[in-house]
Structure formats: structure tokens, C-alpha cells
Specification:
Length: about 650
Amino acid sequence: MAAEALAAEAVAARLERQEEDIRWLWAEVQRLRDEQLNAPDRCQAEGPCLTREVAQLRAENRDLRHRLYRLRLCLAEELSHQAKLESAARAAAQGEAGRAGRGAQRPSSQNREKDIRKKKKEREPDREVKNQPDFIKERLKLFETLKKDHQLLFAIYEQKGNTGKVITVRVADGETVEGEVWKTTPYQVAADISRDLAESTVIARVNGEPWDLDRPLEGDSTLELLTFDDEDAQAAYWRSSAHVLGEAMERYYGGHLCNGPPIENGFYYDMFLEDRAVSSTELSALEDICKAIIKERQPFERLEVSKDVLLEMFQYNKFKCRILNEKVNTPTATVYRCGPLVDLCEGPHVRHTGKIKAIKIFKNCSTYWEGSPEMETLQRVYGISFPDNKMMETWEKSQDEAKNRDHRKIGKDQELFFFHDLSPGSCFFLPRGAFIYNTLVDFIREEYHHRNFTEVLSPNVYSSKLWEASGHWQHHRENMFTFDVEKDTFALKPMNCPGHCLMFAHRPRSWREMPIRFADFGVLHRKELSGTLSGLTRVRRFQQDDAHIFCTVEQIEEEIKGCLQFVQSVYSTFGFSFQLHLSTRPENFLGEIELWDEAETQLQNSLIEFGKPWKMNPGDGAFYGPKIDIKIKDALGRYHQCATIQLDFQLPIRCNLTYVR
């Protein structure tokens, strides 16, 4: 016992010394940080020598951070080791006492039940990898270290009086409440209004930005509380479910997670596995792990961390490092933790995994990193979740109905069309299917005639010089079928617009001719990835009712209005309801921002005048112009992107299209 006491005293002394080191190191980090923040003020006075001083301070700062991190790891290991020793000692003492009390008694019925359960568990297949990868533990330790640093910083801010300031929170219904900056959360505001409201709310929207319910408010705010029927809330719900699936996949496979976004109906997660693939027989095991994670009610914790530290955290995962290096353009990014999973994510998320009431893991497939066959093969697993078991039952019924209504099955059973591996993504229309197809073409052709469109026929193959002039070569070359002829590169056309520009420009045009409306039913080809091909909804060879209107600036809004009425007339004929989305300037846009702003304003004015509900879809426009996307609703309530009305100011400029006034 004396030896144990001495050992305990030695451990305690070591821990105390290390805690003192940590306090000193933190003070030193703060001092260096303050000096670095003040450095720009001294720049003009001290001249060029300051650059070396700042670099030295930064280097010392990095060393101190690293040393602080290692010391915290040592502390955690010492405490864990000591706790294990104490636990083992207690267990040994209890075991001796139990054996002395039981003597030579026969095993109780309770012990026999334990043995049966143990044997049953041994016979069950493994649900998780037995040896979790080291990167999971290291990643979690670093997260906990960073979390303590954030808590310490907040405590310092609190001591300085930077928190506690009264703020005004205006709730969506007009009610105004008071709160404390950096303390009051949307969940607390919701709970003060109604406990049921707080529990049914998925996420918040603060000053127009999606927000975690447990994330403190940072100033005066306008607060909206979003339930599952809101699109942002649905996305957050399925984003959180994707993290649950990601945690389950790490537990089961031990591979490297890649992307796990919410999608229109559910979510998926991609994982890189070097030496194996995911089997559909494993989906039930993944679902069981997901349900166990949900029962644990693991909280979602958010941290904003510097990019350099995140690169250290995810150094084991080349895919996360690619995202950080190629997609993150800010000094910091956010990570979320639930259980042992720590993942890059902008958020927001539900409060904890227990908010996910029903989950289904239902499909898997192989894919490529960023969809490129030249990159690594990934394993993708799909799932869906709901806050209510009845919603899951409704979804499962719709899936059964969808199987019966699958157009691929109907096409085969009724001998309308089929597909063949010798021409992937290209439909073979049989006589019955060709009759239906031609009937639809005749209907649209008649509608074009009523609206003063003139039908044209254009070539299928063009020189790459045309695509370079139009800008498509730079943005769509990888999606075009190309080939060389007599030292020139040609491509099958994926769209009609450059060809129609050539038809407009083949002779001088007068303002009296405007607008000129060309309609074209020509064959188009797009080099879609084989893994994305799906019946008639995603193909490589297709025809569409494709038209281009050449008009003056003054005629734009009237022409857009006519296109919207055209769409409404055709869809109402077939009984389709539809949604309108205004897709605006993307990151890779061509041209001047002023032209884009003008084009977007004109489309917006046309939508307002049309009088139907519409939504903004920021950043999803084509590279050459904004567009109105129309999604139609099928018999099962699913939406599909169909018609598109695009406004292109760039192509006439790039192709030098003119008319005479």
C-alpha cells in the first residue's frame, strides 16, 4: 500500500506540474496572439524588419500550439490509465468478496441467463470492425482539445465583460423577446414560447441564415423556427442523418469518408475502401448501427477551426484534404461531432441523433470521386429518414408503387422501347413506342406553329472551333463525344444554340425580322457517365423540343412571358403541375456582372408578371446566362427537371450576331 500511495503521489505531482505548464503555455499563446494582432500598427514605424519578427512569432505560436496539444494528450492518457487501475482494483476486490460469499454454491438462474446471452452474442455476426482505426481516436482527441480551447477563450471573454449584453430577438410571428449575446439560443427562445414548438423545430433561421438550435445568438436577430416541412429544415434533417450513416460506416468498414450530402429525397454517404466493395447484404447491419446511434441521442457539436488545424485533423484522409485545399477559400471552416465522428460540414444540424425517429438504409452503388472515371472508385450508400414513423410508412408504400410504375418496366412489358449494352444510354424505340413518340412530336410541332416558330434542321457534327467560339468547349468538352478528322477535332452536338447562331448570321438581319424563333427536333448527344444513366431520364442520345428566340432587348420580357405561357399550356394539356425556379449567376460565369444583373432582373420581372409562385435558386444558372427551371410533378409526387427558359446575352456577343436598325 505504501508503494501504491507513493505512486499515486508521484502521478498527482506530475499532473499538477503539467497543469501549471498548460496554464503558462496558454498565457504565452495569448501574449503572442496579442502581439501578432498589434503587429500591423507597428508596421510603418518599424519598417521591413517586422516581417521577420511576425514570422518568428508565428513559428513560436505554432510550436506552442503543438506543445499544448501534446501535453493535453499526455494528461488525458495519464488520467485514463489511472482510472483503469482504480477500476481494476475495485473489480478485483469485489470479485474476491463475491467468491467468499458464494462459496461452493451452484450458479444462479441469473448467471445462467448471462451465459446464454453471451453465447448467443458470440454466434451473431460482427456488426462493427473489431479494431477501430487509430485515426478515429486521434481525431476525437484533437476535437476535444480544440473544444476546451474554445471554452477557455469564451471564459476569458466572459471575464472581460464581452458577454451578457442584452439583445433583441424578433420571432417570425412578430413577438419580440430579450436575450443575452453569445448565451441565448434559438432552442431556448422556442422553449419559452412552447415546449411542443421547441421539440418539433428542426433548425432555426437567424437573420435569413440557417442556424443550429443550440448555437448562441451573436447579436440582435430575426428568428424563424423551422419544422420538417420547410426545405432548409429537411436538408438539415437529412444532413444529420447522413452523419449518422457516416458514423455507422466508419464503425462497420473503417474506411475513409468522402462526401455525405442531403439530396432531394434523403441522403447518401461516399466512402473509400481500398480492397473491397459494399454489399447490399450489409445494408441491414448498417441500419442496425444507425438505429443504435440514434438511441444514444448523441449531441451535434459545432466548432469553427482554422484550415491549418483541420488539415492536421484530417491528414489521414486525402479526400477531406482535397476538399479543404480546393473548396475552402476561407481561413476557417466548421466541423461537427456526433459520437466518435468528427466531420467537415457547414451545417446546421438537429440537436442530437435522437431527433431522427425513423431511418431506412435502402441502396448502394459504386461511383467515382467527383464523378470522374479517372479518379478513385468510391462506395455510396443511400438512406432516408423522417421525424415520424407514419411518414416512413408512406414513403415505403410510394417506393412499392414506384416499382410498379417504373417506366423502364412499362416500356419493356408493353414493347415500347428498350436499351442495349452495345449502345449505352441510347433508346431503341419499338413500333409502338415510335408511334407515341411521333404523336408527341406532331403535337409540339403544331404548338410551335401556333406561336410563330419556324422549324429548322441543323447538322449533328461541328468543328471544335465553333464550340471554342461559343464558350462550350471550355465548359462542356468533357461531356462531348469528340473525334479527329483530317487534323481537325469535331464533336457531336450536345445542344443546338451555336448551330442556330450560324443560321441567324448566315445573312444580314433587319430589326423588322425580330423576333426570329427557330425550333429544332435534331438529335443531341452528351457523354454522360455510365453510372448515371437511368432509363429515359438520363441518356446519352436524345431529342428535345429545342427552340431559340433572337430578339431585341426591348422584346425580352414579352418573349419570356410567351415562353412561360407556352410551358403552362403544354403541361396543363397533360395534367402536370409544376414549380418555377430562377437560377442565377454561377461561380464560373462568362461576361460582365452588369449584364448578368440586367438579365436576372428581366427574368424576375417576367416571373412576377406571370403570377405563379416561384423560388430563387442562387448560383445554379448556366455559365452563359440565368435561367428559369421548371420542375414537373409525376403521379407519385416526385419532381423532375424538364423545361428550361434561358436568357443568354453572351452567345450573341461571342458569335458577333448583329442586326440593322
